[in-house]
Amino acid sequence: MKARQVLVPLAAVALFLIAWEALVWVMGWPNYKMASPTDLIPAYERYWSLFLTMGWQTLWRTVLGLMLAVIFGVALGMVMGFSRTMRDALYPLLVGFNAVPKATVVPIVALMFVGWHDFNTVLIAFMISFFPIAVSVSIGLSTLEPEYRDILRSLGASQATIFWKIALPKTLPEFFGALKVSVTLAFIGTNLMEIVSPHGRGLGALFDSGKTNSDYPLMFAVLIALAVLGIVLYYIVVALERVFAGWADRTA
Amino acid sequence: MTMDSLIDIAGVRHSYRTASGPLPVLDGLDVQVPEGGFVAVVGPSGCGKSTLTRLVAGLLIPDAGEVRVHGKRVTAPRSNVGMAFQNPVLLEWRTILQNVMLPLEIVPTKLSRAQGEERARKLLALVGLEGFEGKKPSELSGGMKQRASLCRALIHQPEVLILDEPFGALDAFTREDLWQIMHRVKAEEPFTGVLITHDLRESIFLAYQVVVLSGRPARTQFVMDIPDTGLRTLEDLYTPIAAERLNILRHQIEVAQGRVAA
After folding, report:
1. Is the peptide bond before B24 cis (omega within 30 degrees of 0)?
2. Where do transmembrane segments lie in this chain (chain A) (predicted)?
3. Nearest residue to A18 (alpha-carbon basis) of A34, A37, A33, A31
4. Per residue in B30-61, pLDDT tens?
């Protein structure tokens, strides 16, 4: 990676923080209306150990939910990609399921599995993030040009061989595109549950306690911490994409 | 049935099931290709030429009639076929060399990996792709991809090479280059071939027999032999005899399209 690729985004972040600070200063906003970046520093200093433990809670539950979403989404995508009947049968269900705002599902799940905070959180992260993966895998598989199949089938290859040698690798760029969307969605899912659950844990719960205690800089500090976690996870996916589907990148 | 035919297609009838009932595409198709022969199949668009290739490859089983290769009835895909299409369908995540070697990962082969690689390099050199073994398909031009696709179709020494309009999407000069490469390949790597094409010049330049199919449902309408008189050059396409053959074929296509009476 060239220095430019690191410096340009860092400069953009620095500019953003300066603009934010300047805006708050020029408008003369109090910190309960809009905290400025310099207001956040004391919040991080005071609660750094909480940020670490809560951040870890949020991170592992998001990643676990995401991993389940990958497993389930890929399996569902495969079923729909290979079978026309399954595609016709499952699409309306899937779209309907996805159309229900997860914010309305959160209280239901929180009541259904009351007390199972980790389970609830992972479940919502999973539910909110598997849809793009399932759709992308199913489209990737069902749009495989018939010639690709014919080349291998005419040699006597089995369906499984066709899947491993052609269909799977060919679907990877779409899969990673969907995974990037799912990463951010999974964070939304985790935080929705953390905020709503009584006695919750994670950054969402920290946000909620900031609200309860009218500690506005803390609330903003949580938002920034979430953004940082999201960026980290996103770039991990980008790195995986380079390794497994780097061939699809034509800009290099 | 002639005993010396490697590919023998006799009285083949085939329909596709569609929402509005069966759609007959082939009805009374007869094509014989002797061992080492090269037959071009021409006909109006949508007349079922590609269906023919799928029948020979064993990807489709005809409703009636039979397709035999080496006297054995084709009832399922067998590894003795190599295919190349208009779309080169190279795997973009593999290098050219890995693409060419793909069939060796599937068909039972006596070649070791090293021998397979040596053979792939030899084929690539034969089609003028020496030095491109480590490139990805996205780094190659359309004509080069098609040449790599041809090598992949030949790597496992198939008895039958099926070419379904492999040069259809290329510009005229690249196409003529590939015609000459085909002759070079055939001299070095003998195969029995079926070429589906829309290009009459291509058919008489490459094949030793041209089969004209009628409009849908297709039957064998006309057969023209093109004697093997040694190495062909592009100049041969501009001789009176070539012009006469093209005229006859042109007329047969028009008959097949239903534009003129036979």
Report:
1. no
2. 59-82, 89-116, 122-144, 175-196, 216-240
3. A37
4. 888 988 889 999 988 777 788 888 888 888 88
> Mutating which of A84, A144, A148, A151 best tests the B interface, going by the most B Cβ atoms within 10 A?
A151
d(CA B147, CA B164): 14
Which residue is closest to B55 within chain A, CA to CA?
A154
Cα separation, B82 vs A34, whole angstroms: 68
Burial of B262 (0-12, 13-18, 19+ CB in 10 A): exposed
Q: Return the residue in B89, B101, B136 with the most chain A beta carbons within 10 A, the one to mutate for interface testing.
A: B89
Question: Region B93-119: what's the mean pLDDT?
Answer: 89
Identity of the residue in A147, A153, A170 whose CB atom sits nearest the CB atom of B77: A153
Q: Which CATH architecture has domain A48-246?
A: Orthogonal Bundle (1.10)
- CA separation for the pair A154, B82 (Å, rounded): 8
Of B160, B161, A248, B159, the residue nearest B149 (C-alpha): B161
Other Cβ atoms less than 10 A from the Cβ of B43: the count is: 26
Whether residue A156 and residue B89 make contact (CB cut-off 8 A), yes or no, is no
d(CA B111, CA B90): 22
Taken in order of first residue, the domains within chain B and their CATH numbers are 1-80+162-167+192-262 (3.40.50.300)
Residue given tokens 């030429």 in the structure block: B49
How high is the mean pLDDT of chain A?
87
**Structure-token pair, residue A11:** 């400069």
Tokens representing B80? 């003795």
Asked if A42 contacts A215 with a C-beta cutoff of 8 angstroms, the reply is no
Nearest to B251 by CA among B194, B197, B200, B195: B200
**Do residues A121 and A109 touch, judged by C-beta distance below 8 A?**
no
What is the predicted ipTM? 0.80
The β-bridge partners of B224 are: B210
- pTM, two decimals, is 0.78
Radius of gyration of chain A (CA): 22
Question: What residues in A contact B58, CB-CB < 8 Å?
Answer: 154
Taking CA B144 as the corner, what is the angle to CA B122 and CA B207, rounded to the nearest 5 degrees? 80
Beta-carbon contacts of B53 under 8 Å, excluding residues fewer than 6 positions away, are: B83, B162, B164, B194, B196
For the record, the structure tokens of B186 come out as 């055939």
Name chain B contacts of A156, Cβ cutoff 8 Å. 76-79, 106-107
